[in-house]
Amino acid sequence: MGCSTRSKGRILLGILLLIFSEFVVGRFVVEKNSLRVTSPDSIKGIHDSAIGNFGIPQYGGSLAGTAVYPKENKKGCRSFDDFGISFKDKAGALPNFVLVDRGDCFFALKVWNAQKAGAAAVLVADNIDEPLITMNSPEEAGASAEYISNITIPSALIDKSFGENLKNAISSGDMVNVNLDWREAVPHPDDRVEYELWTNSNDECGVKCDMMIEFVKDFKGVAQVLEKGGYTKFTPHYITWYCPQAFTISRQCKSQCINQGRYCAPDPEQDFSSGYEGKDVVLENLRQLCVFRLANETQKPWLWWNYVNDFQIRCPMKEKKYNKECADSVISSLGNRTCLSSQIICLHVMFILFHFWCIPGLDLKKIEKCMGDSNADSDNPVLKEEQDAQVGKGSRGDVTILPTLMVNDRQYRGKLEKGAVLKAICSGFEETTEPSVCLSGDVETNECLDNNGGCWQDKTSNFTACKDTFRGRVCECPIMNGVQFKGDGYNSCIASGPGRCKLGNGGCWHENRNGITFSACVDNEDGKCACPSGFKGDGVKSCEDIDECLEKKACQCPECSCKNTWGSYECTCGKDLLYIRDHDTCISKRATGEKFSLVAVWLILIALAMAASGAYLVYRYRWRSYMDSEVRAIMAQYMPLDSQHEVPSHQNEGSAWK
């Protein structure tokens, strides 16, 4: 019975997904660039080509090259290396644009194989007579994911008849020179660019979601620089579907939709029986829209990038953190109201003026009010506006692909990558009005200067977990003076390991009274705080003095009298008694004095005896040496010793004077 119910649920899920897809099929606009043939004269002219939705189109610029049509592997579905074919241009020659036929494999695979062989661009000739379509990347993950993200050359689809003309000219030996031009792909009416990003908060939808998450992380810094400088106006959007009336009371629609089936999203795991539900995604989409609206009201629309990026990092589905509690903690870390003060000293009138102002934050209550009641049987104003915006107006088509980027009301085509998107946005500025970011290779920001980027900060020591990078700020616990801080980087960082107590007492309790200091910090690896002996408490916020006297942990002897002190105690003994702390006992001072006197006498006697013995030994040695010298002197007068020479005769002393 259970298996049958699950099978029916999956069948109904498939039906609902098909119904949802029917509702999003609308007027899809193919974004085009112009292709100009400059030679030969027989096919010279301008033609339309549809920009491929992968690779990097050269928005705002143009690219010239020579069209080549391979004799083998004409559809480009196999590696050109297998046929010994190379499209690398020779020195001084125009780069090669490879012309391949449509069919048998993905568009992206054809472009990837040509790029590996050295092509500068790819033209795909349609194999049927039809209006131009957009070449899209495959939805499936797997083998295709390995090369789609690495495609860096532009590509375009051309219609069948024009493709045949190019092939005939190449086959006849003519040099076919073409020019791909993207300068008018994005209109540029003034000095401000308006762009929209149609996205989704679901992070478990495969390659597309991974690409979206990576783009938000990489582009955040650039987007905030453009927005803060007033160069752009950015608006995020979210696609939702509605449940057909016939299915609104079904369990499946109730799990995928809010507001009685009006706003729905497909199940993230495509399984109604487990994991997150589609309505979880809709609610987070709605929360992100309200974050943007509230940030816009506070003149800080760029805070949306901070929230979305941090939510993706801190609240992923795979870790079961994709919920309201995690979202609220992210909002709180970014949107705390920060009050600043300044003082202006006026020397003329000798007074100090204190001025206070507050940087408005993101109020959780206002966000909840913006989200409204998800169970109400009525329209949600925010989501209703999003559904209306999905429908194309004017030259813009319906939004049907996620993610989709709109630049000056034109759908961006190509790889969702920082450099490529920035190039498209910069091409939307009126000539000579481009900001400096469009003229530099990269953008460097310092988001840590603004409220520490929403990261943890130690207020006493000014340590912060905010680290500025070329991709924007990241919250990472720092290493300060050789001490590693550990934590999530957003709410807390705790010093860990040797030396941590030297830095703000390691975040532990400490207090000084009357020149005596106690601290709960211990130099250990786990970074825990422990109240010192004589105190009790958590070691972080407080340590309270233990009354050893009251708890009868000291002064147990009958004669003892206990007095509690801060962090310790004092014991005294009555009458003529002395307290011995190590043994918790009282002894007589007189007995102690007598014992001390006896020991002192014995020590003096021993010292005198040792001194007398030493003097006697010295005396004996010196006396014996004296007697020996006297005996030797007397004997030397009467007989020569062996060691002495004979005294010479006086009769022989005058011979030297002759």
Q: Number of helical runs?
A: 13
Low-confidence stretches: 1-26, 336-360, 641-658
Q: Which strand order do you get reading across the main beta sheet? A: 1-2-6-5-4-3-7
Write down the overall mean pLDDT: 80
Record field, number of beta strands:
30
- Under CATH at level 1, the class of the largest domain stands as Alpha Beta
CATH architectural category of the largest domain: 3-Layer(aba) Sandwich
Largest sheet: 7 strands, mixed, barrel
Overall domain count? 5
Level of helix content?
25-40%
Describe this structure in words.
This protein is an alpha+beta fold. It folds into five domains: 2-24 and 187-439, Glutaredoxin, CATH 3.40.30.10; 32-181, Glucose Oxidase, domain 1 (3-Layer(bba) Sandwich); 447-496, no CATH class; 505-545, no CATH class; 547-593, Laminin (Ribbon), CATH 2.10.25. It has a seven-stranded mixed beta barrel. The protein has a four-stranded mixed sheet with strand order 9-8-14-15, sandwiched between helices. A three-stranded antiparallel sheet has the order 20-21-22, with no helix packed on it. A hairpin with a 7-residue loop joins strand 21 and strand 22. The longest helix has 50 residues, at 589-638. The radius of gyration is 45 Å and the shape is elongated.
